[in-house]
Design brief:
Elements lengths: L11 H4 L3 H11 L17 H4 L1 H13 L2 H6 L8 H15 L4 E10 L4 E11 L2 E15 L6 E3 L7 H12 L6 H9 L6 E12 L15 E7 L11 E3 L28 E6 L5 E8 L13
Parallel strand pairs: 3-5, 5-6, 6-9
Antiparallel strand pairs: 1-2, 2-3, 3-4, 7-8, 8-9
Helix pairs in contact: 2-6
Protein name: Cobaltochelatase
Length: 298
């Protein structure tokens, strides 16, 4: 079980200026949702682990000259948040000292169909590793003592997602098809791991945390449109989905949110402190959630 070896640098996403560099810093330094034996930070054996100040220096240099990162992020046409998260990890692993990125999104195929893809294949001083990475946002609903954890769309479930990773994705690298691929790369043994970043959102009354969640996981609140509006309505701004990763800054220009209009889709809002730094997140959801009749409009 590993938390984040770079948690001492968690302030960086608040202090850097360029949005993509802040996102990169958040991806590397934020705590995972889970606390499990199958978990490993992708940079756990990088040289940065022993010298985190070198990682901070690299991120500050990128903040001054972000062209290398922004160019990397233009790859492909997929603009989903999960793909963006993967690209940020690929960039970090490509530049991390002591780590070699051997491949990303590697397909495994039989003669008739594709079994799946390996998100990341890396080599470091501790061996060769297959890594599945994901960023997720789940809301606790149902009984406070035994809640279900649902994604904003009302369909994705944390328990089911974890089962998919453990029983489907991680075993892919132990399959005969994977061994054939690894043989062509001169690889004998591969260790599979998971890393899941993101947030868990709690109702105002609270809820029991997910059984294997990290004690350090990032938290927010969620509230229905038909309930009381949050305090300081004018201090909340709408956070576009592509900006769900790093903490927001007031100067980012996000729009103020109108609490008088019921959202068709769960909206992620941020609250700022007196210095303009994000200090709270809130999912404002329609009365019908988790049933969302107009899924295409988010």
């Amino acid at each position: 079980m590993m938390s984040n070896p770079f948690q001492a640098l968690a302030v960086l996403p608040y202090t850097l200026r360029h949005p993509a560099v802040r996102d990169l810093a958040w991806v590397i330094t934020s705590p995972p949702i889970l606390d499990r034996a199958e978990q490993r930070h992708p940079l756990a054996a990088s040289n940065w682990t022993a010298k985190p100040d070198k990682l901070a220096d690299w991120l500050h240099e990128l903040d001054r000259s972000p062209a290398l990162l922004t160019g990397w992020l233009t790859q492909g046409s997929d603009r989903r948040l999960g793909r963006y998260y993967e690209l940020l990890w690929q960039f970090a692993l490509t530049h991390a000292p002591g780590v070699e990125l051997l491949g990303a999104n590697l397909p495994l195929r039989t003669a008739t169909h594709t079994l799946g893809e390996l998100d990341l294949l890396i080599r470091d001083d501790e061996g060769v590793h297959h890594l599945e990475v994901a960023v997720k946002y789940y809301l606790a609903t149902g009984l406070p003592q035994s809640p279900e954890w649902l994604g904003p769309g009302g369909e994705d479930r944390l328990e089911r997602k974890l089962s998919h990773f453990l029983n489907r994705q991680l075993p892919l690298s132990q399959s005969p098809e994977a061994r054939v691929l690894f043989k062509t790369l001169g690889i004998v043994s591969v260790q599979p791991w998971l890393w899941m970043g993101g947030y868990l959102f709690y109702p105002p009354a609270g809820a029991t945390p997910f059984p294997s969640c990290s004690p350090h996981h990032l938290r927010g609140l969620w509230q229905r449109f038909d309930k009381a509006k949050p305090e300081e309505e004018g201090a909340w701004k709408l956070l576009p989905k592509q900006r769900w990763l790093a903490p927001a800054h007031r100067h980012d220009g996000h729009a103020l949110f109108d609490f008088n209009v019921e959202p068709h889709w769960p909206r992620l809002l941020v609250h700022f402190d007196e210095e303009g730094q994000e200090d709270h997140r809130l999912f404002w959801i329609p009365e019908t959630w988790p049933f969302i009749p107009e899924r295409a409009e988010h």
